[in-house]
Amino acid sequence: MEKTIYDENNGLWYELRGDYYFPCLTVPAQEQRPIGIWGRRHLQYIKTERKTLYTKLLTSGRLNTYLDDINEQATEQMLLLIKQMAEREGVTEQLKAQDQMLWVQRMNNIRDRAIEIVNHSLIYA
């Protein structure tokens, strides 16, 4: 018996293992891109809540690219939200020079609200 055979009907190669032929299937190599905190949070979400999407992205080799894109979008949205909220609420460098503790309180509050918005709109959506 031949070690490998090609089936013209479906275009697959088969490998002999023991007495049976098994299809030679491989998962495409994924481009390795660093994934930040937002990408890791979204990965955890889709692994538990959206298993079909996770499996589709994993088997197509687009998971890392998808997560990196989510991470970039979330980071940009977070920075934009913080900037806009700080301007609207009057949290400036002048306030920082006058009352540092008040500035820290307000910036922490703004950051926490921005995190909630990003989580709701991108990460857990």
In short:
The protein contains 5 helices and 3 strands; from the N terminus they run βββααααα.
Explain the overall architecture:
- With 125 residues, the protein is mainly alpha-helical.
- The protein has helices at 37-49, 51-60, 63-89, 93-98, 100-123, and strands at residues 4-7, 12-17, 20-23.
- The protein has two domains: 1-30, no CATH class; 37-123, no CATH class.
- It has a three-stranded antiparallel sheet with strand order 1-2-3, with no helix packed on it.
- It is rod-shaped.
- The model has no long low-confidence stretch (mean pLDDT 92).
Present the secondary structure layout:
Elements: E1 4-7, E2 12-17, E3 20-23, H1 37-49, H2 51-60, H3 63-89, H4 93-98, H5 100-123
Antiparallel strand pairs: 1-2, 2-3
Helix pairs in contact: 1-2, 1-3, 3-5
